[in-house]
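Worked Example 4.2. Read the sequence first, then its structure tokens.
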Amino acid sequence: MFQDASDLATMAEALSRSPDYRVLRRLVARPTYIPTAGLEVRTGILLDTETTGLDCAKDEIIELGMVKFDYAADGRILGVRDTFSAFNEPSVPISAEVTALTGITNEMVAGHKFDDAAVTAFVESAAITIAHNSGFDRKFAERYWSVLEHKAWGCSMSEIDWRKHRFAGSQLGYLLNGAGYFHQAHRAVDDCHALLEVLAFELPTTGSPALALLLETARRKTLRVWAEQSPFELKDSLKRRGYRWNDGSDGRPKSWYIDVTEAAFADEIAFLRTEIYLRDADPRVQELTAFSRFSTRI
């Protein structure tokens, strides 16, 4: 009969060697480490927010979690430098729906306010900020802390084609299971620790950590093509092509748009001219980098 941790570890190791079983281990957050003197490292931030709603113009952040980590030039994660976790009491009560979704109650945040100087000090040395939905988290975070407007950002959800790399989907829980772990998240910082292990996982398709692929993608310039005034009856063609709709409420065009690589740009313009506009149209194009991508300022 298995009675202690060493026995359980032996059993788990035996099961993991069989093709008939998969073993998931409870995620234990990495302790902080002291960098080796003389070793060249780069520092990143993993960031997660919980908010009172989805509207970055009016809703508020009620929890911020961050993990500061070091990585090598090849994307190997070397260790955790520090963690940050804080609540913030919003100006209006947290709704029952948000509490059900996040587990955060009005009592938990009562009297708490973000220390803006502490947040700035925590992130200012980082080369990149990564969130698992940067299209959401960056818009909120840079509204609160201007230091994050000027950082390079990466998105671990959208900037890696996880299905291509043999994962069931891009949700954090799926990815963590694929990396061999499970966790019972209660705080934003817990999800950051989970994301750290996902990015440390060596992809079977590349033999390199997932972080290496994310960094490679984030460094590329992309081009945002706006299909303004495109015929309404062709919206399904645009959707099938991967275009997304912007309703114009954020000050950007009320239009369909798509982000493409420089290599795919000529094909995209050809598609619009031959299948959408039926003429030599010159659509609006914006250049995006890791410093501007996912921001409300674009």
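Now turn to a second chain, presented in exactly the same format:
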Amino acid sequence: MTTARDLALVALDAAPGRTVEQGDLSLALAGAEVIDLLDAGALSLAEDRLVPGPPGGTDDRLLEEAAAALVRDEPFEGVEDWLWRRGRGLAATYVEDLESAGPGTRGRGRRKPLLGRRVELDPAARARAEERLASGEPVLAILAAAVGAADEKPEAERDVTDDAISTVLAAVGNAMMELEAVRQRKEIEDAAFDNIWRGF
């Protein structure tokens, strides 16, 4: 399993009371794909630019799609630009892919809706993702905490020693803060609009 798939599983199986926003998850999944592609040797980072490697090299359909979507012309694409472009609708893509991956089990009350519906998950894949998260693997721990699917573990950031991965994780954090600022602006504008209508 890839980091992106494990993150999607952890987010879909988040405990009751935890809210995972679709936009946050999409950005984090795009970041996880970059990390998976780095691990597979399918790309490298030059400062914050994604430099594509040779095509192929992964055995995951969605990762292959991600690799095929990389900009292959210099000056290449910045990590944050990638997160916004690739991340658009990516949570829904992973949800659909996980739903079609195998039989789930009905009646497991811990699963909560994402994208407005309940999702059946492959029990073995769920168990592997949960085990990886419980093991304290830092990248998954950081991304799961960022989307609200797990508690923050401050020590996880110290355990990331690869500069390229640190760059990607920082870009995910920045993009999510930008998305939250957009949400807050929209709430303020909506509230102001409602107040204008109440005045008539």
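Notes for the reader: Confidence is low (pLDDT under 50) at residues 104-111. The first strand starts at residue 43 and ends at 46.
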